[in-house]
Amino acid sequence: MRKLLFLILFVALSAAADDTIRSFSIPTIVALGKDLYRRDYMAATAFDALFAAHPEAKKLPIEGWITNSDKEHQRVYFIQERDSHYSLAYIATFRGRREPQIEDKQGTALPDLVAKRFAARRAAIAAIPVFMTKTYNFEVLDAPDGKGFLVYGLASTKDPNKVVVGGHYRVTVSADGKVQQVDALSRSFVVVPRQAPGVPNDANVVGLTVTHIVSNTPVETHVYVSLLYKMPLYVVTSEHDIWRVSDGEITKMVDEK
């Protein structure tokens, strides 16, 4: 059996001393990362179901989506823009493990909860210095303190053989849609191959090792990326601590001497 391999990646090289991001506790980071992955998965599944049921939807001016969960339903609201006016296009409703049910709601006014989250999404997009050549998905989560929202700009790629490690953003938005803070969750936009050049195809790559200098702990997008690509991340922070992010958990590695 071939020896296990680590694919090592240095995400960033330097940062200004006063560059800080909003910090959360490890349990909060884990909860946010899991919620981010769940909502992103819902949206991807809903898009597949929508285009399967309504191929004509690909031609609609869909401007984004909002995911929402309550005790009874999990829904993805697809939003369209016509004549500078936003309205619903379709709703995907999840019930249990069944495929989502698609409802045609074209022209229907946005429900209040959707309108508020979509306003936060638009404000966050306008505040993020994203280059047009890069593809981003945006998810709106409730802020941990119950006040407003956290909007995540998730850098993505359509290549299944690539892993997007850096380039994600977090924007804190108030309940009335005002941007309060923009956090770059890495210092670089980095996409790496699942298999490093020169590594034999039958080698067992057990994880990615990344440097992280914008905080002293991993962040929620590390949890999200690990879940998305089903691969552990070993995060080396500016304090030279090593953290293992895997299966929706964060563990600080102890150097046994």
Description:
This protein has 257 residues and is an alpha+beta fold. It has one domain. It contains three helices and 15 strands. It has a five-stranded mixed beta sheet. Strands 2-3-4-5 form a four-stranded antiparallel beta sheet, sandwiched between helices. Strands 6-7-9-10 form a four-stranded antiparallel beta sheet, with helices on both faces. Helix 1 packs across helix 3. The two termini are 29 Å apart. The N terminus is likely disordered.
Describe how the helices and strands are arranged.
Blueprint: E1 5-9, H1 26-53, E2 62-69, E3 74-82, E4 85-94, E5 101-104, H2 112-127, E6 135-142, E7 149-156, E8 162-164, E9 169-173, E10 179-184, E11 191-193, E12 205-212, H3 220-229, E13 233-237, E14 242-246, E15 249-252
Parallel strand pairs: 1-12, 12-13
Antiparallel strand pairs: 2-3, 3-4, 4-5, 6-7, 7-9, 8-11, 9-10, 13-14, 14-15
Stretches with pLDDT under 50, minimum 5 residues: 1-18
Which band does the percent of strand residues land in?
35-45%
Number of helices: 3
- The overall strand count is 15
Average pLDDT reading: 85
What's the main sheet like? 5 strands, mixed
Q: What's the end-to-end separation, in Å?
A: 29 Å
Question: How many structurally independent domains?
Answer: 1
What order do the helices and strands follow? Answer: EHEEEEHEEEEEEEHEEE
Structural class: alpha+beta
Alpha carbon gyration radius: 19 Å
What overall form do the CA principal axes indicate?
globular
How are the strands of the largest sheet arranged? 1-12-13-14-15
Helix content: 10-25%
Oligomer: single chain
